[in-house]
Amino acid sequence: MTSISPFDIALLLPAVGGTVYALLCLLAGLWFMRRPARTLEPLHAWPAVSVLKPVCGLEKDLGMDLRSACVQDYPAPLQVVFSVQDSADPALPLLRALEREFGPERVTLAVGGPRLGPNGKASNLALALAHARHDCLVISDSDIHVPPDYLQAIVAPLSDSRVGYVCTLYRAVGARNVWDELELLTVNTELLPNFVFARATRAAPACIGASTALRRETLERIGGFEALASHLVEDYEMGKRIRALGLRAVFLPYLVDTTVDLDSASSWWKHHVYWEQNTRAANPGGATAFVLVRGVPFALLFALARGLDPLGLGVAATAVAVRLVCAALFARWVARESETLRALWLLPLRDVAGLASWAVALFSRTAHWRGRELALDRAGRILSAPARERALVITGDDFGLAVPVNEAIEIAHRRGVLGSASLMVAEPAAGDAVERARRNPGLRVGLHLVVCDGHPALPPNEIPALVDASGRLSSHVLRTSFRVFLSPGARRQLARELRAQFEAFARTGLALDHVDGHGHLHLHPIVSKIALRVGRDFAMPAMRVPREPGGRSARAARRGWVSRQLAQALLSPWVALLRRRLRRAGVRCNDWIFGLHDTGHMRTALLARLLADLPPGTTEIYFHPATRRCPELDRTMPDYEHERELETLTSAVLRDAVIASGAELRSLGSL
Asked: Which pLDDT band holds residue 232 (cuts at 50, 70, 90)?
């Protein structure tokens, strides 16, 4: 009989749970869409309606989506209000054309208005409401396309005075590239099934702000859109407040369409994480527990953990097959659309990405929406923050590794823009590096912690779990990473070694400006935990956070779009954990970094493009310069262009680019 370890069971449970959940969502969808419509008394008079359409940017098929609201088969006065915050919004010509086409009785255009808070949609809706003539309101997102009978369907339940708001479901349509298809799968095979399951089981209340009808009086009783302007998920907050008044929510078995419009891996990934952050902000406990029903990624991990044996492959094949079949039947019988079927081959990939985005949303306090970066608190509210100035930290790594490295860092500091260096205290040329730092007091020096691939500060026999047969710290990064994670003895040895490196730096007499890690291994959760604990005893002021913005990095390098976005996604949970630990410890850090993907090849043209697109906040750019090749560099970094990086650091082009960026040159410790 094939044995199953506790680790196998931990992977198997969500694999089985996700498979069962897929079947339950299909059944819930069939129940929801095929239940009889609620009987209503015939309306004696249909109310006049104002449809609020907040617009931001010129989206794909925007004209068709907006026009569908204007041509409703509705037997009472109808006003459609298009609202835009920015007087330079590229959608304005289209909106003015619709206003001319349908006339002022049908279409009202509202432009400008105050920003009530960080949630742009809430401010936009408040602007639309100020121009609404009628008391029956329908909120309909700009990318929503509605059938001709939509208004009659969504307004009719409001004839019951006990109803506070009415929502319809929506499905994604209009995919024209692979990123659109992945987004379509998120909506049609995850969000929509999750919603109908929640409605069928009453597991979680909701309000679908993309398609909602309510009365003006109800909105005023909860404080209007102004009261929602600081919430990431303003529709959920609106529904919660309306239900708190004792009013009911009605969810119709009626579908409208939302047009997907994503043109890159970056935009898809940010929106994918945004969906997860919405779920977490609305229902933190449910969002965390949802990992237990992510069947496909855990089934694949189960198969890998078992070395792709028959049991592992069987579980993976079953989970994938059930997921695909249930998604196809849900699309056909519940969502009643066919685009999902054409994109179904991407579903396993989307589900794996879903687990990654779930992990990112678990830790990340930053959301991206319509080109804006939003800082979030733990309750899912958007933090209002002033625009941040740009600061720039330029660092030379591996100070002390070899004399040619030390020479280059000194030259780059005296003749160029390099202001910081990270010292490897146990390397052969560390003494030479310290002497150069002493005669250049403007050079801010930090500690470059070495966990792998370097000389230890302690005798090798005191840290056998960390060194190889030659007495050097092991160059096997994965092996060391797992060893310190799993072995208490290895962790104790690591703590002694890191303390010895801090003590060696203290003996130099140099002021400690910052701490970072060789190979960025301080990002490892065990290493960062120990480094922060030990660093507290040495008044560690700052630590590097290796967080490179994949989109900006790829634009500057003009290559690696997918790989850089994927790397950013995979590192995001550990980056978020490190940033949270630093905040709690009161240790300063950078916001961004460049060099992860182009390390050793930081050429002048690349740097000029990076500096022209520098993000707000503090950015660190690190280099590995040297005046010439040497055995240490040939062994550790054989393909790096060390001399070329020194040319970059001392070039007039780079100095001019730094000035043009408007960024202030700083060190991490001086932030």
From this structure: confident
